[in-house]
Amino acid sequence: MIAAHLPILQIVVPLVAAPACLALGRGRAAWLLALAVSWAALGIAGGLLATVLRDGPVSYALGNWAPPWGIEYRVDALNAYVLLIVAAIGAVVLPYARRSIADELPAHQHAAFYTAFLLCLTGLLGVAITGDAFNLFVFLEISSLSSYVLIGLGRNRRALTAAFQYLVMGTIGATFIVIGIGLLYMATGTLNMADLAARIPAVAHSRTVLAALAFLAVGATLKIALFPLHGWLPNAYAYAPSAVTAFLAATATKVSVYILVRFLFTVFGPAYSFEQLALHNLIVPFAVIAIVVCSTVAIFQNNVKRMLAYSSVAQIGYMMLGIGLGTATGISAGLVHLFNHALMKGGLFLALGCIALRVGSVRLEALAGLGRTMPLSAFAFVIGGLSLIGVPLTNGFISKWILVQATLEQGAWGLALVVLFGSLLAVAYIWRVVEVAYLRPPPDGARRREAPLSMLIPTWILIGASVYFGIDTSLSLGVAEIAARILTGGAG
Amino acid sequence: MDIPGLYNYWIVIVLMMTGFYIVIARGNLIKKIVGLNIFQTSVFILYISMGKVDGGTAPIIAEGVERYSNPLPHVLILTAIVVGIATTALGLALIVRIRAAYGTIEEDEIHAQNTMKDADG
Amino acid sequence: MSAQTLIWLSLLIPGLAAVGIALTGRWPNVREAVTLTAAVLLFACVAALVPDVVAGGRPDVTLIEMLPGLPMRFVVEPLGMLFALIASGLWIINSLYSIGYMRSNAEAHQTRFYVCFAIALASTMGVAFAGNMMTLFVFYEALTLSTYPLVTHKGNEEAKRAGRLYLGILLSTSIGLQLLAIVWTWAVAGTLDFTAGGILSGRVSGPVAGVLLLLYAYGIGKAALMPLHRWLPAAMVAPTPVSALLHAVAVVKAGVFTVVKVVVYIFGFDLIRETGAGDWLAAIAAATLLIASLVAMTKDNLKARLAYSTVSQLAYVVLGAALATPAAVLGAGMHIAMHAMGKITLFFCAGAIYTAAHKTEISEMAGLGRVMPLTFAAFLIGALSIIGLPPMGGTWSKWYLMLGAVEADRLVMVVVLMISSLLNIAYLVPVAARAFFLPAPRPAALGAAAAPAAPDSGGIREAPLFCLIPLCLSAAGCIVLFFYADAIYDLLRPIVQP
Fold first, then answer.
1. What is the pLDDT of residue C443?
2. Is residue C451 part of a domain?
3. Are residues A167 and B94, on separate chains, in Cβ contact within 8 Å?
């Protein structure tokens, strides 16, 4: 009975809990509720994935209004995959958030923080689950608005300007998406994505559909922060509270990637997007620039959080490169990196949050001697960094492997070299941190002071997962390949 | 091309570009929010315009009326308006906080303060 | 015990030892006991595998499928058997030596040192037993990373710079070139299993084979082909036991071992010879061999000279692989063993001299031979083995390499090998000769009056026993290998005569 309603529960549970958090008023009670909800969400997402893998796509008609008139929640392997990533990151970040937030925010903001966090979670899950184009926009805005709030909560006043900048850029992006959806509705008279996919071929040659695709693609890339539309991201990540950065870095851009993939492949279809419009000629160059330029910029950052933010933009380049290739292997490379990057970057930002808690700064020179004063956090950072580089036995290696394989399949030597060159740039920026942390003596009087367990355990869960999925890829790569087959039109 | 018949779409485009221009060109944060509003409003009009069916009336069931306009875009845009208001409110709230923290709401002055005190982040 | 269990144990013992060492770090004696026990057990496990492999068995274990069609898989074949045997055997000797060296020099962070050492050995075992190219790559990278803390052990500016160079060259070549070559091979051949006769033959054209071989040869930065050899001299900043076992044996041999594996099992002799892909590789190896020898002559720092000597000796192995004839590849395989034994002896001596006399420059060592006779005698034995004079093990590998060059009809290479042997004499023998035959310098400032009449020992004696015994053992090993070279020959023969 409950199993049949999993899709709606996935959304409703956190949505209802969010205002309840605010009503509870006290930080600790709100945290407990949010924690319970996030774990429930993870359980539901796991259940959905299991169902999808066993029985094929799940369709849920909201309020029993049959699609395409009513809103349909449609979960196939790709949706379930993204849902699992988002829910898992949420479930890991929340236990961590209590100490981190208690340190970084004044007590009266705690309940509001958990409310905004749950709303953000709801929005991201909603985007990933819905089969209705307009509904997708609404969820996107729920997640965006709450993430502006979360970022604005940062201690540094620059968090405010970063949040404002993100608000402006994000709203433009979302509005572009809604224009695109409107134009599609104009051309086809439907908002259900499956229905859209069926109807678009008949009107594919109209200017309206073309314009819709353009607006959707630009809007989505803005939210993805694909170069050169990434301007909002570094500051937003650098000044948000640690837990928020970890959560958003691991989920928000990933969900935006999902939006783009969903529209390009399912709604418009690879034949239209790639064979007719040759979108890869547009996506791939920008992805390449993102990889090279942003990795290079990352090397010169002195704020480690901002360094990782630039690295995120570069990593998004890898995902978009894979997706931009438009082949089944390329898409699975993009998707598996989406999964893997969520784990490693989430872990890295969490480790950095541990450091921020004890050291009070994330500037490079403040990290001197961390190998001795905070061995576990520093080592977590090293493993996460190795994963970012793509060293074997970490999940980053798997991503790189598949991506290089995808480029070689196309005979694109240059692209393979770019991917590998990007890894070397990652070595440069990661090793700057490692050298300071391990080879510089700690400041005088510093003694061993590790972060509390409630923060270390979540950090190590993500870092451990990064290693685990570097060895056993049956879940990460397996589902990504199924999703890629569905997207390229093969049987699921 | 039927320019007069498509005139509301032209309005949409003019509004959209106006709003977009204000967001990009103005340094005053409040004006940016105003520009963002105009930009979003253009989309509202786009949706409302597309709901119109030639010769159709308001979508309320009435005696002797055969053609109704499509109500769905209107409903959709109600949601979008709510989203727009929330965005505006949040933007303004952020501006209040920015003003408290920086003493100004001019982008260039904020930027100058940020670069001056770059050591804090 | 079944062969499978033995493979498991060989991989697990050093790994578990790392954990044990980390846990017992507070009690140095227990910690060292853990290292030694692990080394002995590891050697026993590896040695127990030998009869099976000699009898033609190829025991294998499969761990987990990392990527579809690409499991992490271990197979013991003769070449890997030999490499594992050398690395694990020398680990025992080196552990003894480490104890003496690290304690006498009161080095800091000793627990970290032994932990990283054990992990490096675990990675070496993984490289040696890897059953496909991806498994090999995984452990190759693990070896790079686990040795980085050893290179930067001193933590000063020089160590930091060396570490940057070490990691920079090794990681950028392996990720930038080797990984590309591996994925390319995978795309072309559809498998990465090491297969007798090669997996690429018949699947790639001549030019492609050439490019691939280039990617592999330079992608395997640990083989230190010029101009990508700079990391090796830089790594000499590490404590001497590291230079001895890792940068004369495990790490660098992992490099040339990989080159030989690639030539034998990925390309296959026929492909290398028919497409002429090996020609330029042989040329590069020959150039490296000569240039590195010449550079070695200019170095006054003993460890730097030995490092360049290693670069040159590694090129012998690559040259043997590039010639791709049975005798040459046999010679290459044997040289891995012979050079390991000789070079570790030389490094042990360098460390012993540093420990006892605190001297690092060759010009300062005049007359030292009289106060440290055992050390310098061992040095001479090691040097002769490297040069390739009987009755030292190095004779045989050079013999087969020359035979291979003749077999391949490359007389130029025969000449190169001969010139190089002469150069070896020129840069190694004077070190010992100087120590034995030149008078010790007198303290200049005080003049002759203040100096005692007897040869000035300045209080210098032989290094502590823990240093001395290992270097005598390894020097003896050089001689033993001369007489037991046929055992190595029998072990390796199946790879060239399938």
1. 53
2. no
3. yes
CATH number of the domain enclosing B25: 1.10.287.3510
> With a cut of 70, which residues of chain C have pLDDT below it?
441-459, 498
Q: Does any domain span residue B2?
A: no
- Would you state the pLDDT for residue C445? 45
Q: Which candidate in B90, B111, B114 is best for mutational testing of the A interface (most A CBs within 10 A)?
A: B90
Are A315 and A341 within 8 A, CB to CB? yes
- Give the domain range for residue C199: 3-446+456-496
Q: Is residue C466 part of a domain?
A: yes
Is the pLDDT reported for residue A288 higher than 90? yes
CB contacts, 8 Å: C22 with chain A:
none
- Residue B100 makes CB contacts below 8 A (sequence gap 6+) with none
Domain ranges of chain A: 278-492
Task: Collect all residues with Cβ–Cβ distance below 8 Å to A139 and sequence separation of at least 6.
Answer: A122, A123, A124, A125, A126, A127, A130
The predicted pLDDT at position C287 comes to: 92
End-to-end Cα distance, chain C: 27
Q: Say if CB A305 and CB A245 are below 8 A apart.
A: yes
Would C265 be classed as within a structural domain? yes
B76 or A491, higher pLDDT: B76
Counting the structural domains of chain C, the total is 1
Give the model's pLDDT for residue A489.
77
**Of A310, A287, A263, nearest to A127 (Cα)?**
A263
Write out chain C residues lying below 8 Å of A404, CB-based. 179-180, 183
Percent of chain A predicted with pLDDT > 90: 59
Mean pLDDT across chain C, nearest whole number? 86
Q: Is the ipTM of this complex over 0.85?
A: yes
**CA C271/CA C278 separation, integer angstroms:** 9
Which chain C residues have any C-beta within 8 angstroms of a chain A C-beta? 64-68, 72, 134, 137-138, 141-142, 145, 149, 152, 155, 159-160, 163-164, 167-168, 171-172, 175-176, 179-180, 183-184, 186-187
Domain of B76?
7-120
Q: Is the pLDDT of residue B3 over 80?
A: no
Segment A223-251 shows an average pLDDT of 91
Please choose, from the candidates A256, A126, A130, A142, the residue with its C-alpha nearest in 3D space to the C-alpha of residue A196.
A130
Residue A1 has pLDDT above 80, yes or no: no
Whether B57 maps to a domain, the answer reads yes
Please tell me the predicted confidence (pLDDT) of residue C459.
67
Main-chain dihedrals φ then ψ at residue A232, nearest 5 degrees: -75, -25
Give the tokens for residue A242: 């640690």
**Alpha carbon of residue C257 to chain centroid:** 9
For the whole model, what pTM was predicted?
Answer: 0.90
Which two tokens mark C224?
A: 């230190």
Number of domains in chain B: 1
> Looking at the domain assignment, is residue C79 inside a domain?
yes
Alpha-carbon gap, residue C37 to C53, rounded angstroms: 25
In 3-state terms, what secondary structure has residue A73? strand
Residues on chain C touching A468 (C-beta within 8 angstroms):
none
Report the distance separating Cα A35 and Cα A27, nearest Å. Answer: 12
At B54 the pLDDT is 79
Percent helix, strand and coil across chain B, each rounded to 5? Answer: 70, 5, 25
> Does residue B37 sit within a domain?
yes
Q: How far is the C-alpha of C174 from the C-alpha of C177, rounded, in Å? A: 6
Three-state SS at C72:
strand
Q: B50: which chain A residues are within 8 Å (Cβ-Cβ)?
A: 182, 185-186
Assess whether pLDDT exceeds 80 at residue A26.
no
Please name the residues between 10 and 39 in chain B that touch chain A, using a CB distance below 8 Å. Answer: 20, 23, 29, 32, 36, 39
Does residue B102 fall inside a structural domain?
A: yes
Residue range A234-258: mean pLDDT, rounded: 93
d(CA A403, nearest CA chain B) in Å: 35
Amino acid found at A221? T
Query: Which structure tokens are listed for A187?
Result: 């051309």
